[in-house]
Structure formats: C-alpha cells, structure tokens
Write a structure and sequence with these properties.
The protein has three domains: about 250 residues, TIM Barrel, CATH 3.20.20.80; about 240 residues, Class I glutamine amidotransferase (GATase) domain (Rossmann fold), CATH 3.40.50; about 90 residues. The radius of gyration is 26 Å and the shape is globular. The chain is of the alpha/beta class. It has 16 helices and 33 strands. Helix content is about 25%, strand content about 25%. The strands form eight sheets. Strands 9-8-5-2-1-12-11-10 form an eight-stranded parallel beta sheet. Strand 23 and strand 24 form a beta hairpin. The structure holds zinc ion. Zinc ion binds next to helix 5.
C-alpha cells in the first residue's frame, strides 16, 4: 500500500505575517519519520500569493525568504519529493490587477472577485500563458519542486467573458448561451465544446511542465474522481486525487471508487474537523476510523494539514501523523498489494451525473444533475453497505477492467450511458451477466433505449409537483397481525412498455394517488391502496444468456434521507434473489458494518476488512456537517457468510475462530467490538 502523504500549507491573506520563525527541517523530519515519500507544499494559494521571489506572480508582502524553495530543499534532504500546490483558476491578486482575466457569469459581470482574497479567473484568457504557467515554471525550476498539485476548483466553470464568447462564436457562428436562458438550444453545443476546450487546456499544461521538467508529477484535484467521473487527459492511467467531505459515507465511497482504477489514488481529506484541515480537535478514534475507511480500500491518505504561519508545525500534527501511520502499518500488513479486489456487486457512478446526455449539460449553470446524482450515489452506497454486500463503486471508465463474470452491475438513476458503456453492458449480459437498473432506464446518444433493457417505451413521471408515493409489496418484510403494513417509499414510478421485460411484482399506490399527485398543495401521504399499480415495480428481461432487472422506484435516492431498517430488510431479500451466487454476505441486524473483500491471486484464500461505521441514521442530503467518534462504537454481532464448497480455516485478527457449515455456505459469527477486523479464510487442503 502506498505510504501516507501530507499537504502541509495554508491559504494566506495579505495581512497575515508569514515565515517569521521557520522550521523547515522539523517539518521534513516528521514527514520522514512517518514513512512519507512525497508531500504537498505551498506554491501559489487561493489569494494568489507566491511564497517565492517571482518575476511573473505576486510574492506575499510579508515574506523575507523563499518558503517554497526552503521546504522543498528540506524535504529533499530526507529523500522526499516536494509537490507544490498551485490554485489553477483562483487567484485574487491576478484578478484584481487584470479585470479582463476574470471569469464572467454573464457578460460584464465577474463571477467572483473579493477585495483581498479570492477571484475566479478564466483559464482561456491570457492568464494561463502570461501568468500562471510562468509562475509554475519558476516553482519547478527556481524552487526545485518535483511536481505540481493543481487545485482545479472553479477553473473550468461556465464563463461568458469576451474571450469565451468570441471563441464560441468562432466555433459555431452562434452566440454563447447565457445563464439566464436555460432553454437556449445552443446549450447542446456548449457542453461538448467546453469539454474539448478543457481537454486542450490540460494537454497544454501537461506538455509545458513535461518540457520544463521531465518526470515531474502533475495532479489536478478532483479530475477523474467522483465529482468529475469521466476520462480527461491523464485520466484513467494517471493518478487521481480527490477530496471528499470528511464524513460518512463520503470517505468510504471515494476510496472505493478510487480502488476501481488501475493506479492507487489519493483520498485527500481537508475538512477533517472544524478547522481547515486542523487535526488538533480530532479525537484519536476519529483519526483511526477515517484513516481505516481509506486504507480498507488500499488507497493513499493525503492528510490535509495546515502549517503555522511562522512556517513550522502546529503541536497536534506530530501526534496525529503517528496515530494515522500506526493504522496504515496494520492495514499494510493485512492487505498485501498482490491481493485482488473481490466485490460481488459493482455500483456504477454514471458520467451523466456530471455531464448529462452526451456531455450536453457539462458546466451548464444551475444544472441540478450533479446534486441529484450525489443523492442516488450516497443512498446506494449506504444501502448496499447496510445490506452487508461486498461491492465497489466505480465510474464507467473502470468498467472494462471491473465488469467481470460473477459480479452484478447496479446502475442507479442513470439518465444516459455513452456508446462504449452500452456496448460493454450488451456484451456482459449476452455472455450471462446480470444488471440491475434502479430508478431510471438510461438512454443512448439518439435518445433511444438500449436493446438490453427490454422496454420499447419508458416514460419518467414528471407530472406531479412533488414526489409521489409507492408502497412496497411484501418481501418477507411486512409485520404480521394488527400492525400489518407496507413500507412507504417516496418515489415516482416510470410508465413502461415492454419489449420482452416481464413483470415480477407490483407496488401499491397511495389512496387517491391520481388526484393527490397533481394537487400542488398536498402535504402528506395517504395509506396504501389495496389494488396494486398497473405498472410493475420490478421487471426482469432475459437477454442473451443474462438478465436485466429494473427496480422501478427511487430506492437509493430515498434511502439518502430515510434509511429505515425496513428498506434494508427489503433490499437484502431482493439482492439475494438477484445475485443468488454472491460469494460473500455480512448478515448484520443493524447494517453499519462495511465489508471490503479481497482474493489472493494464487492461494485459495480470501481476506475481508470489516469496518464498523457506528449506528448513525442521519439524512445524507446536507453537506458539511462535522463528525467525531468520541467513544468506542457499539459492538455489533454479525455473521459473515462465505459461499464455499471447501471447508475453511478462518482467523479474525489473526486468531482462529469456529465456523458453521450451512448448505453451500460457511457461516462465521463475529462480534464487531473494535473499529475494524481482518478476516482471513483459507481453504483446508
Ligand atoms: Zn472566459
């Protein structure tokens, strides 16, 4: 497993005194003592200040020394590479001096410029070549940095500056669409065009840096990660870095996503507590828990720390790194690099969440797709985890690698899949694979439905002013007797016309559903009707040698808000039906325990990390809460079911345990009384 890495910097302001009492060697020594091979230091910050004497940029006004070079040299003495942080599209100093470089949200209206801090700049203006790239060259050649970590942030957002308007006009002989006219048909041209410009811009940057310093590392924060889940120059084959919000289940979800790609990625946690990357307020348990969520997926933890403005470490950092490093050592021992990921389910994170159909919604201001996509992704992650499933979340660009026989592909709320994905899925199902579509049936480039879905028409319900209701039929989940009731899901359903898909079961509408759905002021749900809907809730289509299921409701999206145990129970039963030959299942009354499974490439051996996420059931809809583990998490009794004909020798944290054979499975009882457990199962010869 790659050693931990560290981002040791701050975002300055002109009024803050910097570098008054530097201890470069102290910083570098701590990095060395914690096994680091590289660290991120400051090059150019949000405000736009450089920390070195510069001919092209603006050096911080209080600086007397070259902080970037000083820290790079100190790190080099310990054999550690120094990667310089450079904010790519945000630079207050440049923006205040060159108003013509500012991004514009509408013609003549700057997107963001403040008196002494941020400004959003247009990277298609002369800012890139006259300012940013020359500064980068200084950082690499004069300061000796070994690479650049670009913070992408606002860099490729929509911009209506004169340069961008002229470029659009030149490309299409049409005016650039404006944010206040979302119906302008020119938006269909804008998304793909902006995507191409972005690719060209990235190529230019990579090319310059490689010319100046062959072997330099270049990272663009977020690109290729869950927020930008699509191919770009040096995505997929390069390293991907992304910074999730520092709370459940974002950290796990990002780490799982990264594990689907060929190169280990950074999970870069900034908001690790209330302060910006300030570890001092984090409890030791919190640090252990969140590090474990990254290491369970064998990804690199990039610890977003802040340096004291004197340019020395704050007192909490050394202890924090020691704590995290100790967790890393345990996971590094338990999960050798040769192990292969062994998920039973693949949870797709579709490109359409960010790009819309055929990239037509890319960077369109006010587009809600990404926000809605997060809801399906988060709810899906939590639900599969609660169901005790061994799964991996992944982008379309990882499917070639990960779509293997025996794995079930789940596609939640995808409005579109690109031609390559369509072809891959077609081949996968034809060859005997299983796909589960949830909430929507994706469309193709020309708006048609994929052949493998089994429908001739799918009509999403956008009639009502609010989300409708569907009562779930009994899957062994309804309480019996007087308290007998069906669980309510807040969801619309699609109208379907089959082209071979067969109804498996039906949901129930609420009473007076038609009337209530169209009433703008209805504010509550009625009881379940006794007659089922005439549109199926679950269908199954046999295609080639495989099957495509469609769960016609917003199960994942609703689970983001209301993670009721009855949904977990209902989905557990459904997933057993859809993937009866799954290799692993963690049976856990409360959910909350994540299982990450690995298989040895040669020995008949599997290794599983069980991670205790504690008993939280909050809505995941709202971002940027803070979260701490302040006492040991509740102990959960769980059972690990392993499908195996052979008898198994099983250890939990190195100690042998007794397992029980039940039919085709071996059952391992485990009490989750620690943050994590390592379970190793070896076939007895
Ligand atoms: Zn522009």
């Amino acid at each position: 497993m790659k050693p931990i890495t560290w981002s040791i910097l701050l975002q300055s302001r002109g009024a803050i005194k910097l570098g008054g009492n530097p201890d470069m060697d102290g910083v570098a020594r701590v990095a060395f003592e914690n096994g680091m091979e590289e660290a991120i230091i400051i090059g150019k910050d949000h405000t736009g200040f450089c920390m070195h004497p510069t001919r092209f940029g603006v050096m911080h006004p209080s600086l007397k020394i070259n902080l970037t070079k000083g820290l790079a040299e100190a790190l080099h003495k310990y054999g550690i590479r120094a990667i310089a942080y450079v904010n790519f599209g945000m630079d207050g100093e440049a923006g205040r001096r060159h108003r013509d470089w500012l991004q514009e949200k509408s013609p003549g209206q700057p997107a963001l410029v403040t008196p002494d801090h941020y400004a959003d700049l247009c990277v298609f203006s002369p800012y890139l070549k006259e300012y940013m790239l020359p500064v980068v060259k200084e950082i690499l050649l004069d300061c000796g940095a070994d690479g650049i970590f670009f913070d992408t942030m606002s860099a490729f957002f929509y911009c209506a500056c004169p340069v961008c308007r002229a470029a659009f006009k030149k490309a299409f002989d049409k005016e650039l669409p404006l944010a206040d006219n979302p119906e302008d048909p020119a938006w269909d041209l804008y998304g793909p065009w902006q995507y191409e410009r972005m690719c060209n811009c990235l190529q230019t940057v990579y090319q310059h840096i490689r010319d100046w310093k062959p072997g330099a590392s270049v990272l663009f924060n977020h690109l290729g990660g869950p927020a930008w889940p699509f191919p770009l120059p040096e995505v997929v084959e390069g390293m991907i870095s992304c910074d999730p919000p520092a709370f459940f289940p974002w950290v796990s979800m990002y780490a799982s996503y990264q594990s689907s790609l060929p190169t280990t990625g950074d999970v870069f946690i900034e908001r690790f507590a209330r302060g910006w990357g300030d570890r001092n307020a984090n409890t030791t348990l919190t640090m252990r828990y969140k590090s474990a969520a990254i290491f369970a997926h064998r990804q690199r933890f990039c610890i977003g720390d802040r340096i004291h403005s004197d340019w020395r470490l704050g007192p909490g950092t050394t202890e924090a790194l020691k704590t995290i490093q100790a967790v890393w050592r345990q996971f590094n021992r338990a999960l050798p690099d040769e192990l292969l990921n062994a998920p039973d389910f693949l949870l797709l994170h579709p490109e359409a969440y960010r790009l819309g159909p055929a990239r037509k919604a890319f960077q369109k201001p006010g587009d809600k797709r990404q926000a809605n996509g997060w809801l399906a992704a988060l709810g899906g992650y939590r639900l599969l985890m609660d169901c005790g499933r061994s799964f991996m979340t992944l982008p379309e660009m990882a499917l070639t690698r990960q779509l293997q026989p025996g794995r079930v592909l789940i596609i939640p709320a995808a409005e579109y899949v690109k031609p390559e994905t369509d072809a891959l899925i077609d081949g996968f199902v034809t060859g005997g694979g299983t796909v589960l579509l949830v909430e929507r049936v994706p469309r193709l480039d020309d708006g048609s439905l994929p052949k493998w879905c089994g429908f001739s028409t799918v009509e999403e319900d956008s009639a009502g002013p609010r989300v409708g209701a569907v009562y779930l039929p009994d899957l062994g989940t309804c309480r019996r007797g007087k308290d007998d009731e069906r669980p309510l899901l807040r969801s619309n359903v699609c109208k379907l016309e089959s082209a071979g898909a067969e109804a498996v079961f039906y949901g129930y509408p609420q009473e007076h559903a038609e009337f209530l759905h169209k009433t703008p002021y209805a504010s509550f749900y009625m009881a379940s009707d006794s007659t089922p809907m005439d549109t199926p809730l679950l269908t199954c289509f046999r295609y080639g040698r495989g099957k495509v299921w469609f769960l016609n409701c917003a199960m994942f999206t609703d689970y983001t808000d209301g993670a009721l145990p009855v949904y977990k129970h209902w989905m557990e039963n459904l997933l057993r039906r859809i993937h009866p030959r799954a290799d692993f299942e963690l049976v856990s009354p409360g959910g909350d325990v994540e299982i990450v499974s690995y298989r040895h490439p040669r020995k008949r051996e599997t290794v599983h990390v069980l991670l205790n996420h504690g008993g939280r059931r909050t809505s995941l809809r709202h971002l940027f809460t803070s979260e701490q583990v302040i006492a040991p998490q509740p102990a959960y009794p769980v059972t690990l079911r392993i499908r195996s004909k052979a008898d198994l020798h099983i250890t939990v944290d190195g100690k042998p345990v007794e397992a029980v054979r039940r039919g085709a499975s071996v059952h391992v009882p485990i009490v989750m009384d620690s943050l994590w457990k390592f379970v190793k199962c070896t076939e007895k010869s």
